[in-house]
Amino acid sequence: MKTSILNFKKMFLAIGLFSISVYSNSQDGKLSREEKKEAKRDKDFYSFQVIDSMLLNKRFILEADYLENQYGNRSPVMSNVNFILVDSLRAVLQTGSNSLYGSNGLGGATAEGTVSGLKITKNLKNLSFSLWFTITSQIGIYDVSMTINADTHARATISGLTAGKLIYVGRVVEINNSGIFKGTNSI
Question: Is the pTM of this model over 0.90?
Answer without folding.
Answer: no
